């Protein structure tokens, strides 16, 4: 306190001297300057500061209110999801129980169907083999017949002379003529 009074005393001392100057005593002038600045800030800044604090308070309250609403919605969705999960678990257990019997039934149906298909394929295979055997036998018969016919024609051509050929034709014409008289 003594420094503050000393600074006022020194101000009075300077003013009586008739000149204006600066007090360079830092310890004496800083508390006075700080008190003036703080007084001005409090006087002019309390309205701005209270407005800032009120705005901040409203934002915090709005955030809390929104959070509570979101929390309520999340709890509601969680309850719905739990109910759906429970329903799905019940249905899954039913499907599982029904599924095993259905799987066994489908397995038996598949085995029976496969057995029938294999049986049909076996029959088709046997029919195809039989058909191919008959075709091969017919081809062999045709070839043997063609070779026999060619051999017979070759033998006939080598043994047949013109005279024998004319007598055979005359005999055949005679037989056809006799058959014609019988039929008439």
Write the layout of secondary structure elements.
Layout: H1 2-17, H2 26-159, H3 162-183
Helix pairs in contact: 1-2
Spans where pLDDT lies below 50 across 5 or more residues = 7-17
> What does the average pLDDT come to?
82
Beta-strand content: under 5%
Largest sheet, in brief, is:
none
Radius of gyration: 65 Å
- Give the helix proportion (percent range): over 70%
By DSSP, the count of extended strands is 0
Word description of this protein:
With 184 residues, the protein is mainly alpha-helical. The protein has a domain at 34-140. 93% of the residues lie in helices and 0% in strands. α1 packs across α2 (26-159). The longest helix is centred in the middle third of the chain and has 134 residues, at 26-159. It is rod-shaped and about 180 Å long. The model is unreliable at 7-17 (pLDDT under 50).
Compact summary:
With 184 residues, this protein is an all-alpha fold.
Task: Jot down its keywords.
184 residues, mainly alpha, 0% strand, rod-shaped
